[in-house]
User: What shape does this take?
Amino acid sequence: MIKPAISDTSWESCLITYTNTPNSISPPQPPRNTPSKGFMEFCILDDGITIGGSLRDVGYEYDDTEAIDQALNGLSSKISIERGYGLGESIEYFINEQKGEVFIASGNGGLYMSGNEREPLKFILKEKYCGTLISARIELH
Assistant: This one.
């Protein structure tokens, strides 16, 4: 089980970088702006009940991978006055407008999207991630 360590400096230890196979996760590294390579990487994480856990708490029966996909398509565990709309729109902005890459891990589910791919790559994580992690790489212009 992978448990995130949340602290004032958690951003320094939460970055996930990609290899040729997006389901291979390299060790945590600090966020980096690499102008010589033409991209910037960063991530956001929390140690909550996971996206799937949140949906299951209100009666949905999605596995963790499908729960991520459903959340990106607007499904929420909250009633309309309590919910945000930013996750799907933010990810779409990174993918379509910035021609970026996004990796999301939540529970046992993972999803990778790229501006070059039409469909997200969905997979089951080998180790459960206790929370939700969103890692993004965008091109520098």
Summary: Residues 1-28 have pLDDT under 50 and may be disordered. Residues 12 and 30 are 4 Å apart (CA to CA). Residues 11-76+85-130 form one domain. DSSP finds three helices and four strands in the chain.
